[in-house]
Specification:
Oligomer: single chain
Distance between the termini: 38 Å
Structural class: alpha/beta
Radius of gyration: 18 Å
Strand content: 15-25%
Strand order of the largest sheet: 1-2-3-5-4-6-9-7-8
């Protein structure tokens, strides 16, 4: 434990001395710590994220707002894919949906531990879809460095009443890979249309909620590996209440990872 404490103290010193460094440099520093953490059988704490393991699931969690907070869950006996939940406390039910996908399919789950509009200690946004330097982004980059074909499934929620177009107002699912996509978004949308006929992919079928400004697009992740899923509030409620619907949704995700 003394050794871990010394390591944590050293990391904190490095971070405090790099206050003037760019966000890229800070993010690269965290990625360099996380990459061996994923690869090693001997897990350890990485300041300020505290480590624990339960039922073969490893967890790093930061309950403080330092570096945007954040939590990571990881297990080895699953497919090399990642589930991202950036707005757990704002997009109702997205954590439960994401946790189901993690339990069913993927090795990695990353989620926020603080509300997207909560106070920040460093002046940077607490919104994980906008914040450059955090555990969330570093974990995804480090994970893809070890698993080059890993897909990243990011789950969001939206309010139909706030949409501008008639199609988006009726939508239950909006699928995007950013400004450019490939056959994945079409395959996923086709599968989700069995749950709701109001399933669309961006930008060809609907021109809202494409996630084009999401911070992950600025990072060096694999082309077409990021799948952005927007789910309406009524559909999110149905997914967590109707087991057969969640199973169908999970099967659709399985087909594209």
């Amino acid at each position: 434990m003394k050794m871990i404490n010394r390591i944590i103290a050293s990391v904190l010193l490095i971070l405090s001395n790099s206050a003037c460094a760019s966000d890229d440099a800070k993010l690269n520093e965290l990625v360099s710590q996380l990459k061996p953490w994923f690869a090693s059988a001997e897990k350890a704490e990485i300041s300020p994220w505290q480590y624990g393991v339960s039922n073969s699931i490893h967890q790093l969690k930061n309950i403080s707002p330092i570096h945007g907070g954040g939590a990571l869950l990881y297990r080895t006996n699953a497919k090399a894919c990642a589930i991202s939940i950036p707005h757990r406390f704002f997009d109702t039910h997205t954590y439960k949906i994401g946790r189901h996908l993690f339990n069913a399919h993927c090795q990695l789950l990353v989620h926020n531990t603080h509300h997207r509009y909560s106070d920040s200690v460093d002046g940077l946004s607490m919104d994980y879809s906008k914040r450059h330097y955090n555990l969330h982004n570093a974990a995804i980059l480090a994970f893809q460095a070890l698993h080059k074909d890993a897909k990243v499934i990011q789950v969001h929620g939206f309010n139909q009443q706030k949409r501008k177009t008639d199609k988006a107002k009726k939508a239950d699912f909006i699928i995007s890979q950013g400004k450019k996509g490939n056959v994945i978004k079409k395959q996923l949308t086709l599968c989700l249309s069995k749950l709701s006929k109001n399933s669309y992919f961006y930008p060809e079928l609907v021109q809202e909620l494409g996630g084009t400004k999401n911070i992950l697009h600025t990072l060096n992740i694999r082309p077409y590996s990021f799948i952005h899923i927007e789910i309406s509030k009524p559909m999110r409620k149905r997914l967590i209440e109707e087991q057969h619907l969640m199973s169908q949704f999970s099967e659709c995700i399985k087909q594209i990872i």
